[in-house]
Amino acid sequence: MATTHVNARVRKHRDALRMAGLRPVQIWVPDTRRPDFEGECRRQCLVVRNDPQEKEVLDWLEAAADTAGWR
Q1: Number of domains within the chain
Q2: Is the pLDDT at 39 greater than 90, yes or no?
Q3: Eight-class DSSP state of 34
């Protein structure tokens, strides 16, 4: 069966990564396809729009970012 072949190949690849000292990490991110995604983004932005701590964090990120060659 072709699925068994693929599963064995994936297992071999993952085993090699583990032997190299790596481990798998699963990351869940917001589903940008949801109909309410845009509205929720807007809501959250409005919540922090005039927050001094948010401005402080954004200023720090801008100063710390290495953007050389981005433009």
Answers
A1: 1
A2: yes
A3: S
